[in-house]
Each structure stands twice: as structure tokens, then as C-alpha cells.
Protein: Pyridoxal phosphate homeostasis protein
Amino acid sequence: MSEITTRLEAIQKRIALARERSPYHQDVTLVAVTKFHPISEMKEVIAQGITQIGENRVQEMEEKFELLTEKVTWNLQGHLQRNKVKKAVAMADLIQSGDSIDILKEIDKRAGQIDKVQDILLEFNISGEETKTGISPHDFEEAVEVAKTLPHIKVVGLMCMAPEFGDLEQTRPVFKEGRQLFEKLKQRFPEGQVSILSMGMSHDFEIAIEEGATMVRVGTSIFGERVYR
Structure:
């Protein structure tokens, strides 16, 4: 058994245990984040049943999108620049980084040009970190109202990230607020439309699940350290 398969199985077991500890006992989808990892490693996790692939950069998604023959669900989760939206919409099944009203409008425009309704998550900067993008929770109502007027986007959930605290327990309040915003978001759209709460990465996904995440984004803990290029 390869190292990647061994690590993947360990992550899946940790997810299952975190679900048991969560008061929600929710289903949890694992997105394998393949940023800076080669096609061969992607194919290995796909062979183990992983169908959700996450990329941070449009350019890298484009390279892999053309090479990968297996059927997967493509998640774009990195900050999306306006000039990359056209390409992103052409490839992504889910854009997790709907992090501003301006980018929501641009996604709607570009999706409309190819007669697509683009699934998106509203990304909120709950911790208020200046180094992170995302909609302020204070602008929740405005973002929701704008999103509801855009015919070529479909809000299916919420995404957030917690700061990298030395003490992981400090992430818990961020994830608690993420769950609260998620419940609030569900009430603002038709029943069943909002179903994804994407929060938690390699270092903190277990606490995120305990606080109600329905999707986690894990890369390094599956594939090992990235080789940056």
C-alpha cells in the first residue's frame, strides 16, 4: 500500500470519529486538495473512491483539467481574480471562493455567457484577518440579497477558514460562527438548496467537523508536503 493510500485511509478514519463526536452526526464530504501535486497522485486517490478534487489556482486547474480523464467534481477554492473568472466558470463544478459581491457579479456574468448556472459557496472572513479574503459577516444580508438577484449563480453553501492558531481549540469559535451563518443562510434560500458547509483543512478539520462542517478540504495530510513551483 502506498503512502498516499495509507494517509488517505487514516484521514477517512479521523473524519468518521469526528462525525461521531459532532452533535450533528452529519455526512462529511472530503475534498482532496491537489495543489502542486501531480496527475499521478490525483489518479491514486481517485482510484480509492475520491471524487471531489480541489484546486487553488485557475492556471493549475486548467492544466490538470485537460490531462485528467477520470470523472471528478472540480472545486475551485482559492481567491479568484476577476480576469480568471471566465476560465474558472468553464471548468469548475463548484466555486468555493465567492468572497466578494463584485466577484459574484462577475461569475454571474461569465456563467450567463455560456448559459450555465454556476454553483458557488459564499466565503466569509469570520476571523477578520486582513491577510484573508472573504465577505465580512457584517455584510451577510447585502451579499445574500445581491446573490438572490443573480440568475446565473446558485448559492449552495458557505465556506470559511480559521486562523492557524498554535492551540487548535482556538479555531472552535470561528467554526461555531461558521455553522451559525450556515443555518442563517439556509433560511434565505429555497429549502434544500444550501447544503454545504465547507470548513476545515489538514490541521483543523476534526474540530471543524465537530462544529458541523459538511465538507473538509485536505491536501498535505493526504499527499505530503507540497513542492512549490
User: Anything to note?
Assistant: Residues 48 and 159 are 26 Å apart (CA to CA). The chain has one domain: 1-221.
